[in-house]
């Protein structure tokens, strides 16, 4: 192979690359998946689902990258490659950029006329165009697949459509990272698929936290905020740096300082989607869509001009993004050295409990109603805003820096880490 490893090692895509050393849990999971794929093919089965579950930071993307590379190149998987195309599908633009970069550097070939790495709608359209079925399809960030049609996608459900066209689908899924009402399963059919996978021995769970290099008590403190909506006292942790800042400006300065230390990796500022943003239009009275708090303002992600040579890189890898504010749209699935999180007005602290205020969010995809199978409308806003906070608070490898707009929440967080 060309000197891919050294090139990949020295870039941000190393975190998602096949060269990243796997843990024993990941190696066991990968071998299990390959065995199950081989077993399914030997029985000439069609539409087999292998479900891989794990929370944010469980090492799912690293595992999938290594799995795909093995399926495409290992001598041990030659039987799988016979008459079977191998594809990797992901419904997240920035994750797609990283996988595309790996595909290019490692010269991955799918075994069909389609690229290895594709978005789900593009992949399904490609199969339709070629009037063909798929072989082995690995889906990363499977919780981001659509369960409803939109302008670009006329099917009803990405996963069901891909299963109906594939011999084996390996799906990575985390219920707590669903971001949009159009990704919610409004009936019991996913639970049925999950149950079938479990009964068939095709459910694999990753339980180890791989990203956050913190003590158990620190990880529990973060999880309590998200899952139990409570703020407990934080015990001292010499390995993980959590700070609450007095202003967004101080938070931004601290993140910029961390990012300058290149051997530590990339640090970025992020925020809950509580300020106006549109990728389709420009604001009337200013140059950029911005996150604005008092006299401080900073452009949202993908607003600042970027050098053409960085256009194919993910948002976190582009140098100008240190002067922007990221969101789940740009950081989901990625590691940051230090994650700066501005918790906006949609997250409040009332009577000792964290509450989600859908009226304060600008995330229409999360807070608008979703039509159910029976035609009735239902709101999933609170759950989706909780998932948004989950993604943002679980990006930092070595530290988490926070500023909260809600005064009560800010005070409770400060008190917790004294």
UniProtKB/TrEMBL annotation:
UniProt domain Schlafen group 3-like DNA/RNA helicase: residue ranges: 49-406
Transmembrane segments: none
Short name of one Pfam family: SLFN-g3_helicase
Organism domain of life: Bacteria
Alphabetical list of SUPFAM superfamilies matching this protein: P-loop containing nucleoside triphosphate hydrolases
Signal peptide: none
Name the record gives this protein: Schlafen group 3-like DNA/RNA helicase domain-containing protein
């Amino acid at each position: 192979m060309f000197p891919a490893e050294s090139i990949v090692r020295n870039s941000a895509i190393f975190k998602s690359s096949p060269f990243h050393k796997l843990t024993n849990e990941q190696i066991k999971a990968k071998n299990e998946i390959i065995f199950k794929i081989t077993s399914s093919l030997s029985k000439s089965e069609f539409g087999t689902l292998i479900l891989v579950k794990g929370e944010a930071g469980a090492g799912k993307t690293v595992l999938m990258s290594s799995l795909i590379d093995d399926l495409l190149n290992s001598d041990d998987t030659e039987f799988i490659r016979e008459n079977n195309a191998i594809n990797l599908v992901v419904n997240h633009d920035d994750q797609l950029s990283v996988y595309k970069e790996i595909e290019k550097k490692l010269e991955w070939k799918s075994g069909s006329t389609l690229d290895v790495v594709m978005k789900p709608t593009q992949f399904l359209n490609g199969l339709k165009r070629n009037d063909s079925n798929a072989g082995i399809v690995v889906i990363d960030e499977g919780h981001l697949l659509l369960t409803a049609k939109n302008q670009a996608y006329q099917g009803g459900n990405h996963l069901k459509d891909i299963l109906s066209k594939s011999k084996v689908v390996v799906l990575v899924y985390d219920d707590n990272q669903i971001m949009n009402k159009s990704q919610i399963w409004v009936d019991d059919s996913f639970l049925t698929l999950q149950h079938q996978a479990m009964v068939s021995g095709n459910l694999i769970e990753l339980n180890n936290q791989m990203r956050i290099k913190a003590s158990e008590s620190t990880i529990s403190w973060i999880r309590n905020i998200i899952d139990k909506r409570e703020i407990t006292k934080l015990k001292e942790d010499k390995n993980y740096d959590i700070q609450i800042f007095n202003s967004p400006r101080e938070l931004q300065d601290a993140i910029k300082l961390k990012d300058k230390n290149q051997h530590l990796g990339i640090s970025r500022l992020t925020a809950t989607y509580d300020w106006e943003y549109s990728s389709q239009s420009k604001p009337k009275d200013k140059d950029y869509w911005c996150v604005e708090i008092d006299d401080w303002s900073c452009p949202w992600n993908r607003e600042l001009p970027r050098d053409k040579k960085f256009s194919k890189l993910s948002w976190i890898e582009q140098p100008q993004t240190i002067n922007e504010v990221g969101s789940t749209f740009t950081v989901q699935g990625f590691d940051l050295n230090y994650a700066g999180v501005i918790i906006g007005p949609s997250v409040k602290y009332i009577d000792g409990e964290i509450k989600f205020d859908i009226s304060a969010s600008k995330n229409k995809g999360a807070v608008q109603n979703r039509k159910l199978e029976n035609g009735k409308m239902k709101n999933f806003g609170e759950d989706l805003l909780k998932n948004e906070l989950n993604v943002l608070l679980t990006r930092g490898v070595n530290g988490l820096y926070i500023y909260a707009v809600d005064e009560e929440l800010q005070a409770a967080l400060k008190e917790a880490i004294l």
